[in-house]
Design goal:
By secondary structure, the chain is an alpha/beta fold. The chain contains 15 helices and twelve strands. The structure holds glyoxylic acid (GLV). The site of glyoxylic acid (GLV) has 6 residues, from loops.
Length: 374
């Protein structure tokens, strides 16, 4: 599905190039099928007699720095320069840097940084969402932006299902009941609902939305979806999904509404008071994309007034929410701290996919996942 023509072409070009120029095969990826990725990272790009390209990164280790285990892989392909090293030695380094590897939205790409790197060719974002990058500004410097849509799709779809199930079966409340010292048993009227045979409305049917649909099919859910572009008929049939051209129809009919769109000016506050009021009073809103896709004040009000039944959110704005935020105090709300891609496998594949993208740009090959500003 992911392997479009340009992608296959990139593989072929790369294969020829790699055979000619690389010294040994380095098999890092263990599950190629999972990512729909290319074979780029299967090659040690130790080009005979050539220096590895210099790539700027935020930092190694710490709370938000690149994982030590990924650094080893990155170092096989790049000469890594941390922001600290760059600031210490700008004069010498600024002309050498060809790419920036962005992980956890770091380093921050501002005009000053872009101006200081005359030979920058590509910003390789590790992750699918690029709303933290000013695409117009970056591309005005002649710099390309890439992301990693394939690597994140399984783990993010899993989180969507986990939140939907947890909310439906009141898992968090149940856990609190079980661990509370004064609870002996759950009350007989303490009931959840089943997702089986319920209607799931997926808003945003990209690679993550589609994987959610695949999973929901296994739960015998009725699946509706809304997307800018309708999926091919055979893809719809494969997961048993029905297209809703009008988002309102989906909102009115769904028991669970899952948001899986990119955050853009068009999707900012996509779900506001009007949309929440279209939903069933028994419905649950699940957000696994970006917090700002939902008007959060309208959501609080809807939850307080029983306009909808519950919400399950992996994303909010800001992140984290202030400790006194109303959403954190509601029993019918589950919040996780933006952990859609927080798995060992996803993070590893994100690094691989980002490396593939960066190498493709630096070697003038078709780029597997370029983000083009609209
Ligand atoms: O939020 C996760 C991502 O953008 O990949």
């Amino acid at each position: 599905m992911f392997r479009c023509k340009a992608f296959r072409l990139a593989e072929r070009h790369w294969f020829k190039w790699a055979k000619k120029n690389t010294t040994c095969v380095q098999s890092y990826r263990t599950d190629q099928k999972n990512t729909g990725g290319t074979i780029l990272s299967a090659y040690q790009p130790m080009i005979m007699g050539e220096e590895l390209p210099s790539v700027l990164i935020s930092e190694i280790g710490g709370t938000f720095g690149i994982l030590e285990s990924h650094v080893e892989f990155l170092k096989k392909h790049f000469n890594l320069i941390t922001m600290k090293e760059f600031h210490k030695n700008k004069e010498e380094l600024h002309e050498r840097i060809k790419s920036i590897f962005v992980f956890e939205r770091r380093p921050v790409i501002d005009p000053e940084l872009l101006e200081s790197l005359p030979n920058l060719k590509v910003i390789g974002n590790s992750g699918v969402g690029v709303n933290h990058l000013n695409l117009k500004l970056i591309t005005s410097f002649g710099v390309k932006v890439t992301n990693t849509p394939h690597a994140v799709s399984d783990s993010t779809a899993d989180i969507g299902m986990a939140l939907m199930l947890a909310s439906a079966r009141r898992l968090v409340e149940g856990c609190c009941l079980a661990t509370s010292p004064d609870t002996t048993h759950f009350a007989v009227n303490w009931l959840g609902v089943e997702v089986s045979r319920a209607t799931l409305g997926i808003i945003g049917m990209g690679s993550i939305g589609y994987k959610v649909a695949k999973r929901a099919k296994a739960f015998d859910m009725k699946i509706l979806y809304h997307n800018r572009n309708r999926r091919k008929e055979e893809e719809e049939q494969e997961v048993g999904a029905t297209y809703c051209k009008n988002i309102d129809d989906l909102l009115q009919q769904s028991d669970f509404v899952m948001l899986v769109v990119s955050l853009t000016p068009e999707t900012h506050n996509l779900i506001g008071k009007r949309e929440l009021e279209l939903m069933k009073p028994t419905a649950t809103l699940i957000n696994i994309c970006r917090g700002a896709v939902v008007d959060q004040d309208a959501l609080v009000e809807a939850l307080q007034n029983g306009v909808i039944k519950a919400a399950a959110l992996d994303v909010t704005y800001p992140e984290p929410l202030p400790r006194n935020h109303l959403l954190l105090q509601m029993k019918n709300v589950i919040i996780t701290p933006h952990i859609g891609t927080a798995t060992v496998q996803a993070l590893r594949m994100m690094t691989e996919e980002a490396v593939e993208n960066i190498l493709a740009v630096l070697n003038d090959l078709p780029i597997p996942s370029e983000v083009i500003p609209k």
